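Per your request, structure below.
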C-alpha cells in the first residue's frame, strides 16, 4: 500500500481529537509499548508522554472511522504493540492455521499482493483491490494471496472473512505510521514539523522476521502439495524496501525474477501493468 492510498483512506476531518480519557484508557495506552518506545516519548520529534494516550485514541478512532468492523484489540500503532499483538489468541490461531492452508488444485499460479487500509477486500469498490478482484475474475487459474501485517498471509477466499485489524505500526516512514502531514500536526499541536509515533526498530525487524517465516511455511507447504505451483508477487515499492518486500526476503521462496512492482508508475491503478506482466509470463 502506498502512502497516498493509506492517507486518502483516512478521514481526519470527521474524527475529533479526544480531550477526555478514562484512567484505564490512559494506562492501557502504554502497556503494549516496548521500553525503547516509552523512552522515546517526549524526545526530539516524538509525541510527548502526556499526549500519547490521546493521540493513540485518535488513531484508533480513525481506524474505526475507516472500517467500522475494526476490532480495537487487533490494532497496533508501534512495533512494540505489534509484537504483543502476535500473542492475541485470534492472531496466534491465524498464524497456526494459515501455514496449512492449501491452494485449491484448480489454480496453477499464486500472486502475492500488498494489504490495503480499506477492508474487507472482497468486492472492494475503491483502491487497489478493485484491480485485483477484476483480474481474479478474468483469469480462472490465478489465486491471490495478501501479504499482511499482522496476519502474514490472507488467501483471496478469505478476503471477506479475515479478522478486521489495523496495523500501521511497522511502517518505517513516520508519516505512514501516523497518516498525518506537517499541516495536520500544526492543526493538532500547533507545531511546524511532523512528529513521530514511538518506533522500536529492533522489534520492527523481529516482527518482520516472524511474519516472513509464516509466509515461508505457507509457501513450502503448498509447494509440497503442488510442486508445479507458480509463485509471483506484485509488492515491491519504487522507493526503498517496504515491510512486505522485507517479509518476502525473509521467506526467500519466490524467484527474484518473479517479484514485481505494485504498479507501473506511482499512483496508477495496478490493473493494466499486472495484466500485461501476467500475460508475458504465461
Amino acid at each position: 500500500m502506498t502512502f497516498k492510498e493509506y492517507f486518502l483512506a483516512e478521514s481526519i476531518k470527521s474524527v475529533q481529537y479526544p480531550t477526555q480519557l478514562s484512567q484505564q484508557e490512559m494506562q492501557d495506552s502504554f502497556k503494549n509499548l516496548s521500553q525503547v518506545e516509552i523512552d522515546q516519548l517526549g524526545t526530539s520529534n516524538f509525541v510527548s508522554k502526556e499526549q500519547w494516550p490521546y493521540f493513540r485514541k485518535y488513531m484508533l478512532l480513525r481506524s474505526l472511522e475507516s472500517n467500522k468492523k475494526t476490532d480495537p484489540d487487533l490494532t497496533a500503532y508501534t512495533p512494540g504493540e505489534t509484537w504483543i499483538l502476535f500473542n492475541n489468541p485470534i492472531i496466534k490461531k491465524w498464524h497456526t492455521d494459515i501455514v496449512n492452508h492449501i491452494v485449491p488444485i484448480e489454480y496453477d499460479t499464486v500472486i502475492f499482493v500488498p494489504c490495503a487500509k480499506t477492508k474487507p477486500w472482497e468486492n472492494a469498490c475503491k483502491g487497489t483491490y478493485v484491480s485485483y478482484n477484476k483480474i481474479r475474475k478474468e483469469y480462472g487459474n490465478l489465486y491471490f494471496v495478501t501479504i499482511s501485517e499482522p496476519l502474514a498471509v490472507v488467501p483471496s477466499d478469505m478476503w471477506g472473512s479475515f479478522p478486521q485489524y489495523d496495523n500501521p505500526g511497522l511502517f518505517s516512514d513516520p508519516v505512514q505510521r501516523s497518516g498525518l502531514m506537517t499541516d495536520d500536526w500544526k492543526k493538532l499541536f500547533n507545531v511546524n514539523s511532523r512528529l513521530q509515533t514511538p518506533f522500536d526498530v529492533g522489534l520492527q525487524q523481529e516482527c518482520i522476521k516472524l511474519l516472513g517465516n509464516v509466509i515461508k511455511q505457507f509457501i513450502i507447504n503448498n509447494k509440497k502439495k503442488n510442486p508445479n505451483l507458480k509463485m509471483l508477487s506484485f509488492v515491491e515499492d519504487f522507493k526503498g524496501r517496504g515491510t512486505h518486500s522485507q517479509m518476502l526476503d525473509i521467506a526467500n521462496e519466490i524467484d527474484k525474477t518473479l517479484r514485481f512492482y505494485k504498479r507501473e508508475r506511482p499512483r496508477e491503478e495496478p490493473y493494466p501493468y499486472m495484466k500485461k506482466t501476467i500475460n508475458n509470463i504465461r
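The two ends are 26 Å apart (CA to CA).

Regards,
D.
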